[in-house]
């Protein structure tokens, strides 16, 4: 019987690449996101290319009732979720805190922290009941250190870092693995969202060096979830070679 992985934010970037990588590994997929047409396109591709069975759940992780309803709607044959990848997340704005926009703060907190918690609260009991499972939380180098104007985004990712540690303690007796993955600069839709579709600003984020791509992180997720049952990668920080930490990137002229 194929294992089942649930990936949030599967419509683009790391989430989409992860769904593909796990389908290639032989998993069946539950893919979630806000853009239904992208989910349906991904479902069709995974079925044709990888012969994966795919269940689409169209919801916004910020909506607690929608999250709960979606997870409860999963057919019995799909409830044995082996891997949960909490990927949905974003950064919005890059302002000093005294000039920050409250709506940006709330969007980041509601998605990165509360959304991750809502999904985990719905899925984790299913894993605990079976005494097996692996939760992968997408954190960030911003969850390890704070950078100028990153204030609230960094705070949300520090929260993810702490939540991952807490999850590992709380579910230890159930044999649940928890892996916290902290990427540095990854070229996805991330900067387009942060700069609110200002392509010029987004492109400058990656000028002068080679950033990571979604497939790089997906390959790492694939690795950690296929390790032997007694092995858990707890915390993993990954950056492009040109990046030393959250604030130091070497850019060629």
UniProtKB/TrEMBL annotation:
Which PROSITE patterns does the record associate with it? ADH_SHORT
Whose protein is this, by species?
Candidatus Aphodosoma intestinipullorum
Identify the Pfam families for this entry.
adh_short (PF00106)
What family does this belong to?
Answer: Belongs to the short-chain dehydrogenases/reductases (SDR) family.
Please provide the record's keywords in A-Z order.
Answer: Oxidoreductase
A single GO molecular function, which one? oxidoreductase activity, acting on the CH-OH group of donors, NAD or NADP as acceptor
User: From which domain of life does this come?
Assistant: Bacteria
Q: Which protein, by its recorded name, is this?
A: SDR family NAD(P)-dependent oxidoreductase
């Amino acid at each position: 019987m194929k294992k089942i992985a649930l990936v949030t934010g599967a419509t683009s970037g790391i989430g989409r690449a992860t769904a593909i990588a796990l389908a290639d590994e032989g998993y069946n997929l539950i893919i979630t996101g806000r853009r239904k047409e992208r989910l349906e396109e991904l479902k069709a591709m995974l079925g044709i290319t990888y012969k994966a069975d795919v269940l689409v759940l169209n919801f916004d992780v910020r909506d607690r009732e929608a999250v709960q309803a979606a997870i409860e709607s999963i057919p019995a044959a799909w409830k044995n979720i082996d891997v949960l990848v909490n990927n949905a997340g974003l950064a919005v704005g890059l302002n000093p805190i005294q000039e920050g926009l409250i709506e940006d703060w709330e969007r980041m907190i509601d998605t990165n922290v509360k959304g991750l918690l809502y999904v985990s609260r719905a899925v984790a009991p299913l894993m605990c009941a079976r005494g097996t499972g692996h939760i992968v939380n997408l954190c960030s180098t911003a969850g390890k250190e704070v950078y100028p104007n990153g204030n609230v985004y960094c705070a949300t990712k520090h929260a993810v870092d702490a939540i991952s540690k807490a999850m590992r303690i709380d579910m230890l007796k159930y044999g649940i693995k928890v892996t916290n993955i902290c990427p540095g600069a990854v070229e996805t839709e991330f900067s387009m969202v942060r700069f609110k579709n200002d392509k010029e600003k987004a492109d400058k984020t990656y000028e002068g060096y080679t950033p990571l791509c979604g497939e790089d992180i997906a390959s790492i997720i694939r690795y950690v979830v296929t390790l032997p049952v007694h092995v858990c990668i707890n915390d993993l920080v990954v950056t492009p070679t040109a990046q030393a930490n959250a604030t130091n990137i070497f850019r060629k002229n």
